[in-house]
Amino acid sequence: MSATSSNRTLLHIDSSILGGHSVSRQVTAAIVARLTAADPSLGVVYRDLAAEPLPHATPASMPADHPLSGGKGDAASQQALDEFLAADIVVIGAPMYNFSVPTQLRAWIDRILVPGKTFAYGADGKVAGLAGGKRVIVALARGGHYGDPVATEAGEHAETYLRWVFGFIGIEPEFVKADGIAAGQRESALEGALRSAAELQAA
């Protein structure tokens, strides 16, 4: 992980296990390049969840800020939460594996959904998102096509999951999609996603 100093911070997350062959990694790099070119003072923190995976959730592996940790918690998990809380922009590479997000990304999400930090329950039982000031951009890479609502409801648990998760904490995520990668359309899917990344609103 690396960082530079700035008034505003971008957290760059990759989760693909495919290294240089990964479409989502190429797209997140293009998104970050677009945003940092528009604002060279933007500080960047990078986390590679495949190279440095967080462990699957247990009470002891939660951040110290999480009620399950009993106030003790895991230092690496607390750092992951602190990075997210400090970021103004979060760019996430999310390939779809077996119809959902990689387990490495799910483990990270388990660190940032923390009562009192990113969401809270009101007296009426309704949830209030506490992270609404952030911009989240997801580079979503999928082997097939999921534009059909029936297909999405039946077998798509990556975009639908991430929309729900970030909505739960008060954020409406943006998606840059590369679809059809395993359906003989890898190059056109990547080209389209890179074009979309280059056209992102910089603010």
Automatic annotation (TrEMBL):
Any Pfam family hit:
Flavodoxin_2
**Cofactor note as given:** Binds 1 FMN per subunit.
What catalytic reaction does the record list? 2 a quinone + NADH + H(+) = 2 a 1,4-benzosemiquinone + NAD(+); N,N-dimethyl-1,4-phenylenediamine + anthranilate + 2 NAD(+) = 2-(4-dimethylaminophenyl)diazenylbenzoate + 2 NADH + 2 H(+)
Q: Which residues bind FMN?
A: S16, S22, V23, S24, M96, Y97, N98, F99
Q: Which cofactor does it need?
A: FMN
What EC numbers are recorded for this enzyme? 1.6.5.-, 1.7.1.17
The protein's GO terms of the molecular function aspect are: electron transfer activity; FMN binding; oxidoreductase activity, acting on NAD(P)H as acceptor; oxidoreductase activity, acting on NAD(P)H, quinone or similar compound as acceptor
Q: Where is the Flavodoxin-like fold domain?
A: 9-199
Sorted alphabetically, the keyword list is: Flavoprotein, FMN, NAD, Oxidoreductase
InterPro entries in the record, alphabetically?
Flavodoxin_fold, Flavoprotein-like_sf, FMN-dep_NADH:Q_OxRdtase_AzoR1, NADH:quinone_OxRdtase_FMN_depd
At the top level, the lineage of the source is Bacteria
Family the entry assigns: Belongs to the azoreductase type 1 family.
Which HAMAP family does this chain map to? Azoreductase_type1 (MF_01216)
| Self-association state and partner proteins as the record states | Homodimer.
This chain's function reads: Quinone reductase that provides resistance to thiol-specific stress caused by electrophilic quinones.
This chain belongs to the protein called: FMN dependent NADH:quinone oxidoreductase
Organism from which the protein derives: Ancylobacter novellus (strain ATCC 8093 / DSM 506 / JCM 20403 / CCM 1077 / IAM 12100 / NBRC 12443 / NCIMB 10456)
